[in-house]
Amino acid sequence: EVQLVQSGAEVKKPGESLKISCKGSGYTFTNYWIGWVRQMPGQGLEWMGIIYPGDSDTRYSPSFQGQVTISADKSISTAYLQWSSLKASDTAIYYCARHGGGFHYWGQGTLVTVSS
Amino acid sequence: EIVMTQSPATLSVSPGERATLSCRASQSVGSNLAWYQQKPGQAPRLLIYGASTRATGIPARFSGSGSGTEFTLTISSLQSEDFAVYYCQRYTDWLWTFGQGTKVEIK
After folding, report:
1. Residue A58: what pLDDT?
2. Read out DSSP for A20-45?
C-alpha cells in the first residue's frame, strides 16, 4: 500500500527556521516525483514545487522560488520542505503528494502555525 | 504563465441532480489536466487525470472531458458525500498549477 506520512504540526515564531518531512512507503521512492502543496486557512490549493528523488531534480513554482527549499533523502525515502526564516503568512497546511499524471497519493498534511 | 480558471465559484445542486463544473486554461495544456475533490479537514483526493481517466476507486458517476483549454467535470447524480470543493490542475511545462476551486453545495 502506497503511503505518504508527514511530520507533525509545528508552532514557530517569525524568523525561525523549519524543516518538515514526508516519508514514502509501499513503492519505489526514487521512481516518482513528490510535490508540495500549500493551503492557507480557508483558501485553495497552491502548488509550491516538486522533486524527483532519483536524482534530486527540483522545480519550483515562480511564486515560491527563493522562499522555500525542497530536498529529498532517498536512503530513507523522505522528502523535505524547509524555510530559513518563517513569516506569519507561512501559516498554512502543507501537503506532500506523489505525482504520476496528477497527484495520486497525498500525505495527511502538516499544519504550520507562525505566530509571535 | 498559464492561468487556470474554474467556474462557477459556487454551485448549488439538489441531491440526485447533475453537476457540471468547468475549468479553462489560458493556453493549451493538451490533456494534462486533473480534477480533485476536497472535503473539510481532509487532504484532496484525485478524481480524474489525463482529462478523462478516472483514478482508482472513483465511482462512475464522475466523468471528465475536454482537451486543450476547455475542460469539464460532470457528476451525473449527486450523492450526499459529493458535496465538497473541486479543483482542476494542469501539469505541463514543469508547472502544476491549480484552479481556484468550485464549491458544490446542497441546494
Report:
1. 97
2. EEEEEESS-GGGS-EEEEEE-TT--E
CB contact under 8 A, A44 and B36: no
pLDDT score of B1: 76
CA atoms within 13 A on the CB side of A29: 17
Rounded CA gap, A70 and B77, in Å?
Answer: 41
Please give, rounded to a whole number of angstroms, the shortest distance from the CA of B79 to a CA of chain A: 23
Q: What integer pLDDT is reported at residue B2 of this predicted model?
A: 81
Distance CA B88, CA B39 (A): 15
Separation CA B36–CA B88 (nearest Å): 6
User: Nearest CA of chain A to the CA of B62: how many Å?
Assistant: 16
The tens digit of pLDDT for each residue in B22-35 reads: 999 999 999 999 99
DSSP state at residue A7: P
Distance CA B20, CA B76 (A): 8
